[in-house]
From TrEMBL:
The keyword DNA damage applies. Pfam families: Pur_DNA_glyco. GO terms for molecular function: alkylbase DNA N-glycosylase activity; DNA binding. This is Putative 3-methyladenine DNA glycosylase. InterPro entries: Formyl_transferase-like_C_sf, MPG, MPG_sf. Belongs to the DNA glycosylase MPG family. GO terms for biological process: base-excision repair.
Length: 223
DNA sequence: CTCTCGATTAGCT
DNA sequence: GCTAATCGAGAGA
């Protein structure tokens, strides 16, 4: 097991910095049936200023969102669309709602267990979405609010270097209701992750990974 | 491969 | 009541 990332990394007050920092890092979960780990390849930044898509927007405190107001370094797991759990890392000082949503992971350890959990799905779709990440890694509401420096869920320093040129920035997914905040480019995808980490899966996966779900700026070139 | 649509329920108004 | 930081099946190409 590699060295855990310490508390200081979670106490930053900029969710964008956090979303970038965790790309390429190894996320690990200790399960009674064995450890599962993978490289984080997609994140979204929430919070800061007046982010209307953040569950802590307006500083309304509710039973669901109270965790996101706590000091960074813990998980924020919540139940979404009636059937999915979504994993966030809480950032920042107490009282400030900030988090990074973990949207995609490439599983590198504990594959046998994940294969069972994600039965019926090809490997490149094991954890390529926020609901799939938690399902593959066995994360549920029981993990809400636990320490990320503990022995159940943690992030390791031994990550991979992610070149800036391989990071794609797009608006966040599924937050159309957030008015002007819906369009802000706060989603980060490590485009070349699969070929860097699991090149053997490229053949099987063709070109569907990292597709643009959201239109990006038009190219100013040609014509 | 892409697109559409139904599933299913906690949390809020 | 209504909506939601989504997924996967099914149909068409």
């Amino acid at each position: 097991m590699g060295k855990k990332i310490g508390l200081a990394a979670y106490l930053i007050d900029d969710p964008v910095q956090g979303a970038l920092f965790f790309l390429g890092k190894k996320l690990a979960v200790k399960d009674s049936k064995g450890n599962i780990a993978g490289i984080i390849v997609e994140t979204e930044a929430y919070g800061g200023a007046e982010d209307k898509a953040c569950h802590g927007y307006g500083k309304r405190l509710t039973p669901r969102n109270k965790i996101i107001f706590q000091q960074g370094g813990i998980t924020y797991v919540y139940f979404c669309y009636g059937m999915h759990h979504l994993l966030n890392f809480v950032l920042g000082p107490e009282g400030v709602p900030m988090a990074v949503l973990i949207r995609g992971v490439i599983i590198t350890e504990g594959k046998e267990l994940v294969k069972q959990r994600r039965k019926g799905n090809p490997e490149h779709h094991w954890a390529d979405g926020p609901g799939k990440v938690t399902k593959a890694m066995g994360i549920t509401l029981a993990d809400n609010g636990i320490s990320l420096i503990g022995d159940r869920i943690w992030v390791e320093e031994s990550g991979l270097e992610v070149p800036d040129s391989e990071i794609e920035r797009t608006p966040r997914i599924g937050v159309d209701y957030a008015e002007e905040w819906a369009k802000k480019p706060l989603r980060f995808v490590w485009k070349q992750a699969m070929q860097r980490i699991m090149p053997s899966l490229i053949n099987a996966s063709s070109s569907s990974l990292n597709k643009d779900r959201v239109k990006t700026a038009c190219s100013p070139t040609t014509h």
